[in-house]
Amino acid sequence: MNDDLRRSLDAESRATFRDLRRRLESDRPGPCDALAADVTSIGTGAREPEAERHAAECARCRDRADEARDVWRRLAWPASMARFSGLIPRLLAPLPFRAGRAVAAAILAAAIVGALAVPGDAPATGGLAMRARLDREGLTLREIAGLGTERAARTLIAIGGPEADALLLGMMGRDRAVDSVIAGGLTGIHVGPMHPAEVVRDWRPDLLPALIDAAPPGSALTIVPALFDPRLALRATRALERLPHDEAAAALELAGLSATPDEAATFAQQDIAVPGALAAASRSRDHRMRCFWSALAGDGGLKFLLAAAGSSFFREDALMFLGLLPDDLVFEACREALGDPDLAAGAARAAAKLGDRRLVPALMRAAKSPPQGMGSAGFEIEEGSLISARSETLETVCLDAVAQLTRQ
Amino acid sequence: MHSEAESIRLAQSGSLEAMESLYESHRSMVYAVALGVCGNGPDADEVLQETFLRAFRSLAGWRGEGKFSTWLYSIAVRTAINWRRRFFPKRPAPPAEEGEAPDPSAALMEAESSAELKRAVEKLPPQQRIVLTLRHVRGLSLAEIAELQSCAIGTVKSNLHHAIANLKDALADRRLQA
Questions:
Q1: According to DSSP H, which parts of A118-207 are helical?
Q2: What is the pLDDT of residue B101?
Q3: Chain A nearest CA to B18, separation (Å)
């Protein structure tokens, strides 16, 4: 009933989806739109085979081409009246006098005469010119080095100079191909990929400061000698602090084993160089005494004395020299060193010698939970074959110290 | 009859005959460019002469890199634009269709709604006008125009298409008004 009623009222839409689809398709860009410019070109007389083929089949495009042809036909332009004969008098006429140009010419002539009379610096060539160009473009050498690519390396090699060489060294260690290029550039011969420390050690010792600043892993052995150079010592210390602890310690020990007494004394004054100082002090009595006296004078000497107190080989001397220092200073150093895996054993010995009961809590803490880096089984103090075959754990050393302090 | 390279070499050494040969070879191209920028014959003629004057004066310093026509084209465009910038703002606005001078070359355009078409041409962007005139006045192929302008042929086609579409619209408006 309802359907009959609706039909009788003609309430149904007659628009079908097919109508909508036709309109949608007409909106979509088709081949006609893609060829529109070509079809227009046909109207101007150009040869456009593809568009011509399309226009032969498409009435719309045929119309387009005809419309373009119609416009083209209607266009008209005035003919040129200018002849070469009209140009000749102007070509042959002298250039008009212009005061501004005369002044400019005079200034230019004066500048040339001046330049000839007073020869200036030679013009920048090669790397300098390239660097000047990069400066003008606002590109620094550091930014180029930051790219880390082979091309960047070759650019820096072409520029040359201490700054570029230093940045090249800093670029090493990321890519073997780039390393090979840089090594060739820095050494001047084809040597293949090399470690930057090797480049500095064997070819370019002048780049040691750059190596220190870069401090790539594996460079500790080359950096350690810089501790003896007052100009580089601070930077070398920071570089060794940044390097893996084991690598730095091994390099310092190795250097200590061949150190002169003066070098041993230098090691003993520096916090970072304690392993080297201990190794050097074991070389001779002279080395040992230079180390201890130097440790008393240097800011970092306390660490060496505490580390030495941990070894029975140096303990007697170390405790004696610690006794020369103010008690407050030693007390603070001991409390701090009980948390350091390299110094805790010596600090416990020194605490027992100092006799200050305020250190008991710190000793008990170190006995119960050894400082990180000692391993879960506790730190074994290596006595070595020089003194005795005894070995102790940090726990026993600390508890002995506590017992001594509480007995006093 | 010399080759173009020979003519250039002779013109560089000051030969008027060689200069005339170059002038005649490239006159219509320079005129088309000038017409495209300036839009009228007298100004285009001035630009044509000025362009060749500049070109011949600096020909001694031309190192022969690229084609002579491309070099000349760039001088023509620069000269025409400078000309337009220097003189056009000082001139009165272009006259309405009724007030057009009875220029014989414009007679055809006048007869067939020339005023609308001319005004529509004047309204085109310079790049479209230059392509239009190079193609219509000089009869250069699209590829030749692309080479002169150092651009892709598609760019030339696109400029030409838009120029003609604008002119078609202008004519359609006139028909509607009629």
A1: 126-136, 141-147, 150-159, 162-171, 176-187, 196-202
A2: 47
A3: 11
Radius of gyration of chain B (CA): 18
Distance (Å, whole) CA A133 – CA A150: 20
Rg (CA), chain A: 43
Distance between CA atoms of residues B47 and B51, nearest Å = 6
User: With an 8 Å Cβ cutoff, are A71 and B106 in contact?
Assistant: no
Q: Which of A82-91, A222-231, B92-101 has the lowest mean pLDDT?
A: B92-101
SS3 A216: coil
Q: Which of B161, B169, B175 to mutate to test the interface with A (most CBs of A within 10 A)?
A: B161
Q: Which of A299, A236, A222 is nearest to A268 (CA)?
A: A299
Mutate to test the interface with B, among A33, A44, A83 (most CBs of B within 10 A): A44
| DSSP secondary structure code for residue A95 in this structure | P
Q: Are A359 and A383 in contact (CB under 8 A)?
A: no
Record: contact A77-B108, CB cut-off 8 A: no
Residue A27 is predicted with a pLDDT of 60
Segment A21-53, tens digit of pLDDT: 766 666 655 667 778 888 888 888 888 888 888
Name every chain A residue with its beta carbon within 8 A of the beta carbon of B168: 67-68, 71
Mean pLDDT for A73-77 is 82
Question: What is the distance of C-alpha B106 from the center of its chain?
Answer: 17
CB contact under 8 A, B160 and A87: no
The whole-number average pLDDT for the span B113-119 is 73
Residues in contact with A170: Cβ distance below 8 Å, sequence separation at least 6, in sequence order: A145, A210, A213, A214
Residue reference for tokens 């080095």: A145
ipTM: 0.75
Cβ neighbours of B113 in A, within 8 Å: 74
| Nearest in space to B56 (alpha carbons), one of B79, B86, B36, B85 | B79
- Select the residue of B20, B117, B157 nearest A38 (Cβ to Cβ): B157
A345 contacts: CB under 8 Å, gap ≥ 6 = A309, A310, A379, A381, A392, A394, A397
Q: Which of B59, B83, B157, B158 to mutate to test the interface with A (most CBs of A within 10 A)?
A: B157
* Class of residue A294 by CB neighbours under 10 A (exposed 0-12, middle 13-18, buried 19+): buried
The three-state secondary structure class of B98 is helix
Which tokens hold the place of B70? Answer: 């491309």
Check if A80 contacts B (Cβ < 8 Å): yes
User: Which pLDDT belongs to residue A229?
Assistant: 84
The model's pTM: 0.43
Cβ <8 Å between B106 and A43: no
